[in-house]
Amino acid sequence: MLVFCKKMFFSVFISLMILGGCNSDSNHNNSDGNITKNKTIEVYVDRATLPTIQQMTQIINENSNNKKLISWSRYPINDEELLESINGSFFKNNSELIKSLDSMILTNDIKKVIINGNTLWAADVVNIIKSIEAFGKKTEIELNFYDDGSAEYVRLYDFSKLPESEQEYKISLSKDNILSSINGTQPFENVVENIYGFSQLYPTTYHMLRADIFETNLPLRSLKGVLSNNIKQMKWDYFKTFNSQQKDKFYNFTGFNPDEIMEQYKASPNKNFIFVGTNSGTATAEQQIDILTEAKNPNSPIITKSIQGFDLFFKGHPSATYNKQIIDAHNMIEIYNKIPFEALIMTDALPDAVGGMGSSVFFSLPNTVENKFIFYKSDTDIENNALIQVMIELNIVNRNDVKLISDLQ
Question: b vs e for 87-110, b when ≥16 Cβ sit within 10 Å of the residue's Cβ?
Fold first, then answer.
């Protein structure tokens, strides 16, 4: 019904445009930047942090003249000069973005839309595709998906535990599942076989935190066959080739400049260690203080990779109310808790080592940063915890370095 209504609306709209004269929308074209000239629109949507950071650097790196429609939940862009410099428009939600996209497709000869989204929230991308396809204009669609974080890998780990025949059966349904969602006959189900099935319909690239998941011993052969050559290892070394203007643009996007942290790192000749904190739902302030005390003991039988002699930095959880208590107990330097680790990684502002409470942060870290230890709640079943097991499988952490808070008692 949606497709029929949009096609009817499109036909009526074009008829009115012809009657009204070809120049009636010239002001709209000008305000939309170089849409008509390039005939390509780039769309960027994300509800998290990691995909947004990756999308920001992609925009800066490619420096295209294409019109860009952006909706980043955690990084609203209000700087009109910045938006103008990338030929972009920002929207507070995806619904407003889709309305604007619809208008542009109606009033311009758009040939191609490149959609950049969050793999875990593929349903957001489906909604955009659905709106484009409903016009029946055969607009070319290209997709880029970026990992939300560790959640995709927990799902992949769980999927790998299914019998191969069941994996193959689920994968065999994915193309029709996605098509039905785009056609509006059923809602999009956010399951592994669907979120990784878009390459069966559109040119698609999956930018993965750990593309080597398919090189582990996890039985994912069938899924890898569907993905084929559509996987790319997520890129973190943009700053090695960025000039000063490109770096400044990234700082403007994120509101983060690494200069202060880098100066703190260099304030002494010691190596640097960041402790990743958590909130009271996982551990008390006293428990985290005790973990740090144990980690500083070079003879600890529990934490064998000591942080004695390191300069200590603390990155607390944004919702924790006791961060200062932990910082003061060990005379640590605080890293503002709202600065995402992804920004530290992208700007090469990482310490020599990291440790602390269980977090998806450890998934993003390059292997040049040593993982000292990771602690979990006392009631965690390590052997049956999918996140821990997939981290061990990917050699992100050794089993001996995974600890429970109760190990200190």
Answer: bbbbbeebeebbebbbebbbbbeb
Q: Which amino acid is at 277?
A: G
User: Nearest 5°: CA angle at 319, between 313 and 325?
Assistant: 50
With H, G, I as helix, E, B as strand and everything else as coil, classify residue 185: coil
Annotate 135-171 with b (16+ C-beta within 10 A) or e (fewer): beeebebebbbbbbbbebbbbbbebbeeeeeebbebb
User: Which of 186, 210, 239 is the C-terminal boundary of a domain?
Assistant: 239
Nearest to 42, CA basis, from 63, 25, 28: 63
SS3 140: strand
The tens place of each residue's pLDDT in the chain, 409 residues long, gives 554 455 554 444 444 443 344 333 333 333 455 665 779 999 999 999 999 999 999 999 999 999 999 999 999 999 999 999 999 999 999 999 999 999 999 988 899 999 999 999 999 999 999 999 999 999 999 999 999 999 999 999 999 999 999 999 999 999 999 999 999 999 999 999 999 999 999 999 999 999 999 999 999 999 999 998 999 999 999 999 999 999 999 999 999 999 999 999 999 999 999 999 999 999 999 999 999 999 999 999 999 999 999 999 999 988 899 999 999 999 999 998 788 889 999 999 999 999 999 988 888 888 899 999 999 999 999 999 999 999 999 999 999 999 999 999 7
d(CA 70, CA 324): 36
3-class state of residue 115 by DSSP: strand
Same-domain check for residues 106 and 156: yes
Strand-pairing partners, residue 206, are: 145, 231
The total domain count for the chain is 2
| Dihedral of the alpha carbons of 86, 91, 93, 96, in degrees to the nearest 10 | -120
Q: Are residues 235 and 262 in the same domain?
A: no
∠ CA(356), CA(207), CA(261), 5° rounding? 40
Q: Is residue 127, in this structure, part of any structural domain at all?
A: yes
Q: Which pTM value belongs to this model?
A: 0.89
